[in-house]
Amino acid sequence: MSPVSSLPGLPELPDDLENTQVSVGRQSEPERLVARLGELGWTVAVAESLTGGLVVSSIVSVPGSSAVLRGGVVAYATDVKAALLGVDETLLSAQGPVHPRVARQMADGVRRTLGHDGLPADVGIATTGIAGPVSPDGQPVGTVHVAVSTPLGSRVESVQLSGDRAAIRAEAAALAVRIALEAL
Description:
Blueprint (H helix, E strand, L loop, with lengths): L28 H12 L3 E5 L5 H7 L8 E6 L3 H8 L3 H7 L4 H14 L9 E7 L13 E8 L2 E8 L4 H19 L1
Parallel strand pairs: 1-2, 1-3
Antiparallel strand pairs: 3-4, 4-5
């Protein structure tokens, strides 16, 4: 087919323009994460403490997320981190639940826990931290550790967030999705 005529000085448009995909706006980070996981053919599993399900909720809000999301575990209590995610009890006793190594073990553990047919999920995302308003163990409110585990390795990012409880939780969830995107 011949290209559609255009105005003088402008490039010609292809006949099959109706088959061209046009973005209706900038994709959100959860949308980009779901799309990237789909491109890779990978699955994701999420372990959350302070975010209490916000990370999984942001992923579930994306149409088509069921093709990549295995599920989530809200491991709010310290003993749940050990029992369901395999976080080392000695580490938990020595350092407490808000520690970078705990986040890494949560991300690794959720991959195993929510895997399928004996294979782990491809990506594990984990959050742990202190949303406030007070800290039970003396660490500053806003201390957050986010981990992402993939077949290529693990990454932990530790940050100090500010704001009230809701703001800290929301920013920690957004950070978790952002770090996962960067890891892919």
